[in-house]
Specification:
Elements: H1 3-29, H2 48-87
């Protein structure tokens, strides 16, 4: 494993930790702060704490479904091509 792999892995881990900390603060800890607190200025409205992950989930599942469908279609075409070559 090269140094670039370790750096990339560390950067991805750091990014995930930052996103996790930000989202946890936004969705779980923010309601415990006073509405007049300055910390509320650093976060979007709380309704987006549900909408954003739901959107990401829908897009991710759709992308996986599209990939699986594309793979199945390609496999069926390849099998049909092989069957035509055998009968010809």
């Amino acid at each position: 494993m090269g140094a670039s792999d370790k750096f990339l892995g560390g950067a991805m881990l750091l990014g995930a930790a930052v996103v996790f900390t930000y989202y946890t603060t936004w969705a779980i800890l923010l309601p415990f702060f006073d509405a007049s607190s300055e910390i509320h200025n650093f976060f979007p409205a709380r309704e987006w704490a549900v909408r954003l992950p739901a959107f990401v989930l829908v897009v991710g599942v759709s992308a996986i479904g599209a990939f699986v469908a594309q793979t199945v279609i390609r496999e069926n075409r390849a099998r049909a091509q092989k069957a035509r070559l055998r009968t010809a």
